[in-house]
Design a protein that fits this description.
The protein is 52% helix and 20% strand. It has 138 residues and is an alpha/beta fold. The chain has one domain: Rossmann fold. The protein has a 6-stranded mixed beta sheet, sandwiched between helices. Helix 5 runs antiparallel to helix 6. It is globular and about 40 Å long. It starts with a helix and ends with a strand.
Length: 138
């Protein structure tokens, strides 16, 4: 079983990516299914989960608080696995590090332009939302 899991691509969702369903009403999970032809597992960083909880505490009943709550619900519903980012102070650093370790089998899903540029420089694959309605892999 473990070998089978290791053959799957890791798709790691950044915090801003998990907010897309609430903010824009895009079903990122269905879009990922259509976009990727290879077997994959979905992951979230522990730091991203912490960021969502912080947004909920800070924003409360405002829209962004609702989007973050929805993000946490979707993480649980879709059985995303949590990756530890203990070696990095920031989520972006951890994502870069993970992508560099195994670029062929790691895809980072993010809307962060600076992070996308850094990921592309190290040869990592990146998923982003285009035209506020569909995902692209680059």
């Amino acid at each position: 079983m473990m070998n089978f899991l290791n053959n799957k691509t890791k798709v790691i969702l950044d915090t801003n990516f998990v907010l897309i369903p609430g903010e824009l009403g895009v079903d990122i999970f269905t879009e990922l299914h259509y976009l990727l032809s290879e077997p994959y597992d979905l992951f979230i960083l522990d730091k991203s989960e912490e960021e969502l909880k912080t947004i909920i505490q800070r924003e409360g009943k405002r829209k962004s608080g609702f989007y973050a709550k929805l993000g946490l619900i979707l993480i649980k519903q879709k059985n995303l696995k949590t990756l530890s980012s203990s070696t990095s102070k920031y989520a972006d650093e951890a994502l870069l590090d993970l992508a560099q370790k195994n670029p062929e089998k790691t895809i980072i899903a993010t809307q962060d332009k600076n992070l996308r540029l850094k990921l592309k420089k190290v040869g990592a694959r990146v998923i982003q939302l285009r035209q506020k309605k569909h995902l692209t892999l680059g």
